[in-house]
Amino acid sequence: MSITVRYFASVRESLGRGEDRIAAAGVASVADVWRHAAATPLPPRLLAAINQQHAGLDATVHDGDEVAFCDAGETYPYG
């Protein structure tokens, strides 16, 4: 049971990686995904998507989801 986490643009550069896989247990929201995967404070202008659909930081995530993050000032990979 896991969640795939993808990072784009400056978020990818600041973390030094493009992808993580985290255990789904204990992860309820997009913000939880960030805290578990990135282990840094939430950036102020963070955009997120679940399975390539825009999502808020309070959106619910499930086992098998892909969660992606990008800075709001950059081109978002999912349009």
Give a quick precis of the structure.
The chain is of the alpha+beta class.
Structure, explained:
The chain has 79 residues and is α+β, with helices and mostly antiparallel strands. Helices cover 19% and strands 32% of the residues. It has 2 helices and 5 strands; from the N terminus they run E-H-E-H-E-E-E. It has helices spanning 9-15, 30-37; strands at residues 2-7, 19-23, 46-50, 53-55, 66-71. The protein has a 5-stranded mixed sheet with strand order 2-1-5-3-4. Strand 3 and strand 4 (53-55) form a beta hairpin. The protein is globular, with a radius of gyration of 11 Å. The N and C termini lie far apart (28 Å). 25% of the residues are buried. The mean pLDDT is 92.
Uncertain regions spanning at least 5 consecutive residues: none
Question: Helices and strands: which structural class?
Answer: alpha+beta
Number of strands: 5
What number is the mean pLDDT?
92
What is the helix tally?
2
Helix content: 10-25%
State the separation between the terminal residues, measured CA to CA. Answer: 28 Å
The largest beta-sheet arranges its strands as: 2-1-5-3-4
Our Rg estimate from Cα atoms comes to 11 Å
Overall shape: globular
State the order of secondary-structure elements, H for helix, E for strand: EHEHEEE
Strand content: 25-35%
